[in-house]
């Protein structure tokens, strides 16, 4: 759903910036207390519970396991009022083990169909709020059972990905089983019929917030029967009959906020709703192409109501809701959150607007429509930064994901818009993202790290991230037990490691060891985290000092393990590139021979030259080229079938990229230093393809450069994808 940026080549520089270390916990020892023994079990129960409330679930469980007293405190109902299972594989057995602690569970977040099937085994009869994502495989039967077991539900949200297997039957079940329902937001349902909506209107008298987002068909007339609704969103929904909408919805007696963003609504419907509805105060119509046509803008009549569209000043419009005008309109959300005298109705409007705007902006960033550069620079970036400071965790996450996504302007080569990235930096976004990354909530950590990684493609932003202590924060997150957090942190270190000035700082922050440990920790089932960890290590290995750090941390063994056993092409490429860079320092350290002597290394690289993926073949040939500068490696490569493999590669790459041609020829040249290998190359038919490759190059200098080892090949995630 969201984009990650993968970068590539950077030049070798001279300076290194070594940042100070900022540990997470700083011990203060004062005077006579220096030698005293601290008895943690003597802490008051309230203090221990407060400490536990600041930990994630995994750390809380670890702390609870230290003694009986803390185990009992760890089961306190106040610590289990909410539960976020998105980062965990929640099957029936896990749910059953948690059941004894979930009697008073009020709020639950989950991910995927397997977790959904397990929810009923938590036995959380008092559950009030349920939110799920990655819901494509959830069926009517599963959802019906969930709502039947949780009749006290007041809020149900499924999305933003499409609920493809949920139908109107499940919506009817929700109406029948959840009479206390106040909020219902569902995404991507094919059809929501009138009977289902009428059931909600009849059986859920407290239903005030409805969101049917990105649906295919919704019964407009039936929605006009939900007289209790105050906030309604049909953003992204297709096939809306706007004539019916304009005739029916303005009669809803309590409707305060309406969202029709990302639809084909026109100016006539908008004007009719704004002028005819007595209760409507805010209408969101962002990214509506028909409405935004130049000839239609002047036709919109708002009659003093608030219209939020791409052609309006959103911050100014929001500021107009408040009697006291804010000094800086861009601070309208912050001023509202800090306001002591809050109006209940206005508070509900602003809370709804935060959720709606975060959803709209993320969806718009994902679709990446043309012509929005001006909006993103003048309003979009500022809105996302404001929403990142929301008290609603899901709003914060979507805003961070939106920042990670909107800077990406081309999915094919994963390039970013420097203007957008620098706009985030200038508005204080780096500090905000780093603060989110330090949150104990792993969902926020993951999305913030992803945004930092993408933004760091820009050299100026990367420098700001480093100066703000971001390298230390990412190195800490790379040690997370949560794979998603570790993966995004590794991506951030990959992008930052492009800059020569950041390599030393990453090593000093413990980043090298953290990246190597990631490979061992997620050696199976974590292709994304493995590719990012290997890519970052490949960049770091281009530096002489850092290459020694990689070797000392066990990086050679880890990378060879990936080259031998991982089947994912991206991981294979990065592992081979990292081994090539480690072997490029033959004149200054022993890594070249260390790679060659690692069990299975040469055989794995020879095998990778036969890969169906050109990028893998190229990196493997480059690694063999560098390794061939060591006498023992040269003979061992030949013994492992390297001559035959490289000749076949040279024969097959006449139409391949110059990079592959160069590395194939270079590897054969490196082996040809040995007389026995020269004979073997000739016997295998290697002379003819080498002559053909030489003739294909117009510049003689290029082939003079060929006789130098392929050296210090540094790249970042975006540039890597761009060159593949």
TrEMBL record:
InterPro entries: ARM-like, ARM-type_fold, Armadillo, F-box_dom, Leu-rich_rpt_Cys-con_subtyp, LRR_dom_sf. Its main location: nucleus. GO terms for cellular component: nucleus. GO terms for biological process: lateral root development. SMART domains: ARM, FBOX, LRR_CC. ARM repeats lie at residues 428-470, 469-511, 510-555, 554-585, 600-642, 641-686. It is found in: Nucleus. It holds the Pfam family Arm. Coiled coil: none annotated. Residues 37-83 form the F-box domain. Belongs to the beta-catenin family. Promotes lateral root initiation and development, independently of auxin (IAA) and abscisis acid (ABA). This is F-box domain-containing protein. The lineage of its organism: Eukaryota, Viridiplantae, Streptophyta, Embryophyta, Tracheophyta.
